[in-house]
């Protein structure tokens, strides 16, 4: 995952054959609550339980790539015709 | 990359923003916010000196458990957050401008970004050639 330069911190992950996955680090003080968290895992194209698996390190990068390749949520319908 | 975004902080309500159902100014809904409720509105018009939203872009405004606000869209999945609605909308607009720049920068080398950037440009475009030149000068 690479860092993209901007006022916010953006990260980009490229997976062969898929659109780049971009996520922004929010400017937020304190714990990140549900609504804000949901925007982050939405950008990562996974659902909440999977995202929590990543945060808990029970899911690894390989699991993430497989998940996004096989069942991205939300799907990449905007990008892939 | 230097972004020409300072004016975006000056007054968030200068962004033309309309309620999703009645096309009424957003302030009409300011007192209707309930915890966990989602307000849908449209962003349309100038968002900074160089860029303009040419097709109304629906945004969702939602309050979090800690009473902060989150603003996002369902098309590009860009979000912003802040301690109140205005700050969250400002942050969303700034994030969208950054997203525009990132796609613009990578469109030449990544076909997916090129496609996404073309799609984004159906919503957001440089306002004028002069505005576009100002953006380019700012980036150089």
Comma- or semicolon-separated keywords:
heterodimer, A: 81 residues, alpha+beta, 3 strands, globular, B: 140 residues, six-stranded antiparallel beta sheet, 6 strands
List the helices and strands and how they pair.
The complex is a heterodimer of chains A (81) and B (140).
Chain A: E1 2-4, E2 9-13, E3 21-25, H1 34-43, H2 48-55, H3 61-70
Antiparallel strand pairs in A: 1-2, 2-3
Chain B: H1 6-10, E1 17-19, E2 38-46, E3 51-63, E4 69-72, E5 79-82, H2 85-106, H3 111-120, E6 124-126, H4 129-139
Antiparallel strand pairs in B: 1-2, 2-3, 3-4, 3-6, 4-5
Helix pairs in contact in B: 2-3
Topology of chain A as a string of helices (H) and strands (E): EEEHHH
**Biggest sheet of chain A: strands side by side, in what order?**
1-2-3
- If you average the pLDDT of chain B, what whole number results? 77
Largest sheet data of chain B: 6 strands, antiparallel
Main sheet makeup of chain A: 3 strands, antiparallel
Number of helices of chain A: 3
- SSE pattern of chain B: HEEEEEHHEH
Task: Please give the domain count of chain B.
Answer: 1
> Roughly what fraction of the amino acids of chain B lie in strands?
25-35%
N-end to C-end Cα span of chain B = 8 Å
Q: How many extended strands of chain B?
A: 6
Helix content of chain A: 25-40%
Overview of the molecule:
The complex is a heterodimer of chains A (81) and B (140). Chain A has 81 residues and is an alpha+beta fold. Chain A contains three helices and three strands. Chain A has one domain. Chain A has a three-stranded antiparallel sheet, with no helix packed on it. Chain A is globular. Chain B contains four helices and six strands. In chain B, strands 1, 2, 3, 4, 5 and 6 form a six-stranded antiparallel sheet that branches. Chain B has one domain. Classes of the chains: A alpha+beta (81), B alpha+beta (140). Chains A and B meet through helix 1 of A and helix 2 and helix 3 of B.
